[in-house]
Design brief:
This protein has about 425 residues and is an alpha/beta fold. It has helices at about 40-50, 55-60, 80-95, 115-120, 120-125, 195-200, 200-205, 220-230, 255-270, 295-305, 325-330, 335-345, 355-365, 380-385, 395-405; strands at about 1-10, 10-15, 20-25, 65-70, 100-105, 130, 140-145, 150-155, 165-170, 175, 180, 235-240, 245-255, 270-275, 280-285, 310-315, 370-375, 390, 410-415, 420-424. It folds into 2 domains: about 1-25 and about 275-424, Alpha-Beta Complex (2-enoyl-CoA Hydratase, Chain A, domain 1), CATH 3.90.226.30; about 40-270, 3-Layer(aba) Sandwich (Rossmann fold). The protein is built from 15 helices and 20 strands. A 6-stranded parallel sheet has the order 3-19-15-16-17-18, sandwiched between helices. Helix 14 (about 380-385) links the parallel strand 17 (about 370-375) and strand 18.
């Protein structure tokens, strides 16, 4: 019997599988890296050696106002470490600069003060100017241009009413944008609801190149990059993280060149050979990404690659924060998979409903695969109404899956489905 730990909320759950039925356990290589350096040293070294541009302290010289875009409570960016060093670097170049930390919520709910203190630390919350982006607050937005897709690019005015625009985040495979980090800080991070919605339209999400690891020819990614260029992001800072959410590498500098270098690093560590199983068990990386169902398609999309034509997918996600956005909740609970797909497919890009992309991806996967959701926080009746099968533990889910696929069903486990790209 093999015991495998699946990340779950702030800890993990144990899955027990007989070795004769266990076909593979897929781990990304970044979980094995030991840098021999402190996280602070990695950050400072990257800032001292930016890719494709001057140091941030040099770019900051003479600048009176700086907007620094950071991630919200749904992302594992180690801002307690990175933000103080970034602020120090900016002030080294411009001691008197007025700095605004803009929290990129996209269409997520506002980040609470308690969450900010956990993310940034008390000193930053108490002494820095922090603004929470609100995509639904039209008076804060400015129209910039039309994006390549035809969508209107409307963005928070703080991105353009500044002398220097800087972004921070982390890079990982992204199941429809190719990779996270870099340009995603702008779109969807600090755009209007209309811009985000159209970028995530049914047509865009359904595009064959809207997939993990693909940037060229990906209409979602191309709009994101175009938007970031239009607001003149002059400096990005992105980190790579291991399974414990610790910094193992950092990439600083030019919007395109630094991000490309980071993506190449992540791709080299994330890619694993695809192994197909009758049952695929995965997790959404634990907290913060597994805090609601809205975020969980990231790992489910990875499991889909390994689940063959009709494999059963087991997803471990705490969902301590419920289903997620209200629009997603309404959609995912609105009917059968066929009914949801039919409804969404008729919505033109410019009339896209907030969060419909998530319901669309769930529906696409559920057309081929039954999904068992392991959660100890989300009401199981709600799970059933969302067209999923509930379970309270990985072992219980495995028994349910074997009832569907047979006692001798082969099992593939991807403990952290967010960090893995399974390729043929």
């Amino acid at each position: 019997m093999k015991t495998i730990q699946i990340p779950y909320y702030t800890s993990s759950l144990d899955l027990h599988v007989e070795e004769e039925h266990l076909k593979a356990v897929l781990y990304p290589k970044m979980h094995e890296i030991k840098t021999g350096k402190s996280e602070q040293d990695i950050v400072r070294e990257a800032l001292a050696n930016p890719v494709g541009t001057q140091r941030l302290s040099q770019l900051a010289q003479g600048k009176k106002s700086v907007t620094l875009v950071t991630s919200d409570h749904t992302r594992a960016v180690p801002s307690k470490i990175t933000l103080p060093i970034l602020l120090e670097e900016i002030r080294q170049g411009s001691p008197e600069a007025e700095i605004t930390i803009l929290v990129a919520t996209g269409l997520h709910r506002a980040t609470t003060e308690e969450e900010q203190r956990k993310m940034f630390g008390d000193a930053i919350v108490d002494h820095e100017h922090i603004v929470i982006h609100d995509a639904f607050k039209d008076e804060d937005m400015r129209r910039i241009c039309t994006l390549p897709s035809g969508a209107e690019f409307v963005v928070n005015h703080l991105a353009i009413d500044c002398d220097l625009l800087v972004t921070e985040g982390f890079i990982e495979p992204h199941f429809f944008a190719g990779f996270s980090g870099g340009r995603k800080s702008i779109l969807p991070g600090i755009c209007s609801k209309e811009t985000v919605n159209e970028n995530h339209s049914f047509k865009a999400i359904a595009h064959p190149n809207a997939a993990a690891g693909i940037t060229d020819g990906n209409p979602i990614h191309e709009d994101m990059l175009y938007a970031a260029r239009k607001v003149n992001v002059q400096f990005i800072f992105n980190v790579a993280l291991d399974g414990d959410k610790k910094i193992i590498a950092a990439f600083a500098g030019d919007l395109v060149e630094a991000h490309k270098k980071g993506c190449e690093f992540i791709q080299s560590l994330s890619q694993v050979p695809k192994v197909t199983g009758d049952i695929v068990v995965t997790g959404n990386g634990g907290f913060p990404l597994d805090q609601n169902l809205y975020q969980s398609p990231k790992a489910i999309a990875t499991a889909e690659v390994c689940a063959g034509e009709d494999g059963v997918i087991i997803m471990c996600a705490s969902c301590i924060d419920g289903l997620g956005g209200t629009h997603f909740e309404q959609l995912i609970l609105s009917g059968t998979i066929d009914e949801i797909t039919a409804k969404l497919s008729k919505i033109p890009p410019k009339e896209t409903i907030p969060e419909q992309w998530c319901a669309q991806i769930f529906a696409r996967i559920l057309k081929k695969h039954r999904i068992i959701l392991v959660t100890t926080y989300l009401d199981h009746d709600i799970v059933r109404k969302a067209n999923l099968i509930p379970a309270s533990s990985p072992d219980e889910a495995l028994e349910i899956a074997r009832g569907l696929k047979g006692k001798a069903a082969s099992v593939v486990v991807i403990p952290d489905g967010v960090a893995v790209m399974a390729v043929s």
